[in-house]
Amino acid sequence: MNVPIQTESDSKVLEDRKKSIIFKYEDGCTGKGIRCEVDSVSGAVSQRACVYCGARVVLNPITDAFHIVHGPIGCASYTWDIRGSLSSGEDLYRNSFSTDLREKDIIFGGERKLEAALEELINKYKPKLIFVYATCIVGVIGDDIDAVCKKFSDKYQIHVIPVKSPGFSGNKSTGYRMACNAIMQVLNTYKEQPKQKGINILGDYNLAGEMWIIKNYMKQIGIPVISTFTGDSNLESMKKASSASLNVVQCAGSSTYLANQMKDAMGIPYIKVSFFGLEDTTASLIHIAEALGDEKLREKAIIYCEKKQKELESTIEQYRKKLYGKKAAIYVGGGFKAISLIRQFNTLGIHTVVVGTQTGKKEDYEIIESIVEKDTVILDDANPSELETFMKERVVDILVGGVKERPLAYKMGIAFCDHNHERKHPLAGFEGVINFMKEINDSVNNPVWNYIRQ
Amino acid sequence: MLNYTNKKVYERTALRINPVKTCQPVGAMYAALGVHRCLPHSHGSQGCCAFHRMFLTRHFKEPAMASSSSFTEGASVFGGGSNLKTAAKNIFDLYDPDIIAVHTTCLSETIGDDLNALITEMKIPEGKYIVHCNTPSYKGSHIDGYTNMVSGFINNLAEKGDETNGKICVFPGFVNPGDVREYKRLLNIMKIPFTMLPDTSGVMDSPMTGKFEMYPKGGTTIKEIKDIGNCTMSLALGLKASEPSAQVLEKKLKIPYKSLDLPMGVEATDKFIMTLQEITKEEIPYSIEEERGQLVDIMIDIHPYTYGKKAAIFGDPDTVLGITAFVLELGMIPKYVVTGTPGTDFVERANLLFKKFGVDGCIAKESGDLFLMHQWIKNEPVDLLIGGSYGKHIARAEDIPLVRMGFPIIDRYIHSYVPLVGYKGAMRMAEFITNALMDYQDSHCKEEDLEVVM
């Protein structure tokens, strides 16, 4: 069973938040569960972002799209080229386009400015694909971006896709869905392609070139990759997506919704995978081959993974010696990544003592509970003060998280690894296993910690 | 990189490409962090707060603590009053700040939440404070947001007592903690008692102690802010970011003010020191004379390398004008001078500088963006870019060295700890500029021209 928290840390946690934090009490999983998938408490220093942020991170890696943010300047500024997604072709997506709404537009409506912006853009650049993001106030001031987008799509015969993502209309997960809807609006135009053997990879954003690593494995095993969502993708690659025979979902949090839509509209089945860590990468590669129903591919995948595992054995052993017995905290976006990280830590003999996510689902938390050790703290939508309290209480050696967690860890004298947009090296696949161990080791065993005077 | 930037400059009325500004609330958040034991609070959707914290963390490499009203659909229809009430209660219960500084967002402004009325109705715990300001994201820029928050503290807290406290109030402008420390050093050398508002030093450059402090040691105290009404005068550094707050103080409590450009470079720092001297009526200490002499000595040493070199300078208005003045003092030509922040006097003041140094063909632009500046550079190139990290795309595309000064700098470290203001700051600027020019010469000259002695 799991119990609500009751320790000295009790006073540091809001009453409203207590159901979102559990301790693993003894071995096994009760399924009683944590409260998750709810709105953040007002006044909390939440690490969570908004609907727009969720939509933007999913769509941004589409390299030849114009991403126009319709709203005041901030939302465009904060998301300008920060995602770390790499491109093998166009770099258009690394620019920031917006309508920079001003007071007069708020009073008289912003539709005319949006139309003018689209005219300026279309006349100069002859774009093929434009996403128009509606931020917080666009709906409030009554702009009909659906109508504007349709007008321009019809007039110029190009894709002008509305992405309705006012920040208050849900959380980051809502934004993922809005992005998936936008992608589907493009895909639906080309959904009648004849099927061929091959996969689409969903939910990988080619951070530090991770999509290229996964694509390389597919090439080695002999599995054609038809298109990718959305790492290193473009309109041409998206057009072919409906011909795939299988969808492979890497980041389940952001892309399961898209996979379901594609299943309904194009009859493409999907499987969830994770390319983080040796265990999950191997299982995923074999799973993909199996799902394609090709025994030869399955054998090739097994042989390939065995070979890769062999290559890694001695390196893992080296790092295991250096990292054995350390204690880790995990605070990441989605549940699937947290699960992979716990497994990776288990392989290295590192104990995961605190684990949380921003948008994990009930079933993710059940798996997490089943694979962590006794006494591990599990939290949903944690705030810095909770993270601090539990990391201090559990004497954590390293935190894995994103941009806002880094300085928190450092201030506490705790090593850090960014597993989000600011990752320094690819962390996916077999290459990622080495990079991950190296990053953890480089931080945990760095001499710099010795100079802290308490 | 940035192949889409075409050389032909054309008029844009609606489309903003690659901005040199962001929205008001982030400036307000930064200002509020400069008050001791203050928690900035964003009255809007959750994403705003998350983006602003991320943005500040990326520049300062420090935790940026702030809370959010976490607007939902309901709040956006019925108003955010109850969210703010719940938030305030939760914040005082859990995070225990002495003061909450509320700023608005585009959403709460557009739906018309009246912060003053909402806060007046609230029950605030004994000895605690809630202050507020309006920061509509569709007006001005982050610089205006910063100013509005500083004015908010004055409006809500400053009082007039029976007698003067013999101090001057210093408004530092939108600068780094390192700059604030430099002001304080100079004020202390000149033996002038002062209150700095805000004082982000000791907060956004706090030292490593092995402990995470939600409220680090630094920041202006509430007591000091209340007492500002008893200052003899105020000194506004930076006309755009500081003068409006000095005017608010004058209007409310009849404190006279003097405003100066940011003390960047020789002449502006001279003016700053002379102003301090007028206050003390004492001789300027030799140590300051010595620093000035060193700076001029350095400028003479490097002048063969800087003279006639063309620079494009972009960023926040006060900082850009400060840098412009200094590069002119170095004999360089500030070919393009761009800020995204609206305000017509920027261009006038830049033109005055051009005229004073007799340089022709330089262009200044307010409400500009980096796309336009890039187009100008394509037409007539420069030797050096000076500004924040978002200049790096242009630097790469055109092979021009980029010297990082201003905000935001999210791809380098240490900048926030050390000054650009004062004679010491000018020495740093001179070092950056010459190093960039000379490194470029070393890496680009013909092999036979490579020189060890320069």
Automatic annotation (TrEMBL), chain B:
Annotated catalysed reactions: N2 + 8 reduced [2Fe-2S]-[ferredoxin] + 16 ATP + 16 H2O = H2 + 8 oxidized [2Fe-2S]-[ferredoxin] + 2 NH4(+) + 16 ADP + 16 phosphate + 6 H(+)
UniProt keywords, alphabetically: ATP-binding, Iron, Iron-sulfur, Metal-binding, Nitrogen fixation, Nucleotide-binding, Oxidoreductase
Family: Belongs to the NifD/NifK/NifE/NifN family.
Subunit structure: Tetramer of two alpha and two beta chains. Forms complex with the iron protein (nitrogenase component 2).
EC number: 1.18.6.1
Nitrogenase/oxidoreductase component domain: residues covered: 23-437
Cofactor entry: [8Fe-7S] cluster
Keyword Zinc appears in the UniProt entry: no
Pfam families: Oxidored_nitro
Cofactor-binding details, from the entry: Binds 1 [8Fe-7S] cluster per heterodimer.
GO CC field: molybdenum-iron nitrogenase complex
Functional summary from the UniProt entry: This molybdenum-iron protein is part of the nitrogenase complex that catalyzes the key enzymatic reactions in nitrogen fixation.
Protein name stated in the entry: Nitrogenase molybdenum-iron protein beta chain
InterPro entries (alphabetical): ChlB/BchB/BchZ, Nase/OxRdtase_comp1, Nase_comp1_CS, Nase_Mo-Fe_CF_bsu
Keyword Metal-binding attributed: yes
PANTHER family the UniProt entry points to: LIGHT-INDEPENDENT PROTOCHLOROPHYLLIDE REDUCTASE SUBUNIT B (PTHR33712)
A GO molecular-function descriptor: metal ion binding
Regions annotated as coiled coil: none
